[in-house]
Amino acid sequence: MQTEIDEAIRMGLVGCLLQFHIKLKLTTEVIFLAVHILDQYLSVNLVAGKEFPLVGLTALVLAGKYEEDSGIPVGDYVNVAEGVYSKKQILDMEKLILRKLGWTLAIPTTYHFLVRFIKAAEADKEMENTIIYFAKSGLMQ
User: Fold this and answer.
1) Does residue 130 lie in a domain region?
2) What is the longest distance spanned by two Cα atoms in the chain?
3) What is the pLDDT of residue 3?
4) What is the CATH number of the domain that holds 19?
5) In a domain, 137, yes or no
6) pTM, to two decimals
7) In this structure, is residue 116 part of a structural domain?
8) Is residue 49 part of a domain?
9) What is the DSSP code string of the chain?
């Protein structure tokens, strides 16, 4: 459905979101939910290429609000994105995404299944880190 966004552009954005995720010290659940929100929004709404990074950043904000107990302020996201988007732009996009998705954000992501697998397999820390690394790498695909 997207005319201005292809696999390479999406991969680049998800790579940026992973970097923001690390800088903001967000939980692993956040990045998996953010990519889900991004993909769900792209499946129901045509997005202009110049608007795509804003959609991705806002998906990260929404996922952070949903998954994080600390509630990182939107201003921190603005700062990590080097002020490319204003707080108002992010909040406006947040409303649009929530409206288009019918306020449905919660789903079991790959990460939830991996946590269960790691526990069932009684994996050591090295195996757990390897599994999470490959799962995060897979987000870009």
Assistant:
1) no
2) 45
3) 79
4) 1.10.472.10
5) no
6) 0.82
7) no
8) yes
9) --SS--HHHHHHHHHHHHHHHHHTT--HHHHHHHHHHHHHHHHHS---TTTHHHHHHHHHHHHHHHH-SS---HHHHHHHTTTSS-HHHHHHHHHHHHHHTTT------HHHHHHHHHHHTT--HHHHHHHHHHHHHHHT-
What is the count of structural domains for the chain? 1
pLDDT class of 132 with cuts at 50, 70, 90: confident
Q: How far is residue 55's CA from residue 41's CA, in Å, rounded to a whole number?
A: 8
Domain range for 64 is 7-105
Pick from 8-12, 19-23, 104-108, 125-129: least confident: 104-108
CA neighbours closer than 13 Å in the CB half-sphere of residue 7? 4
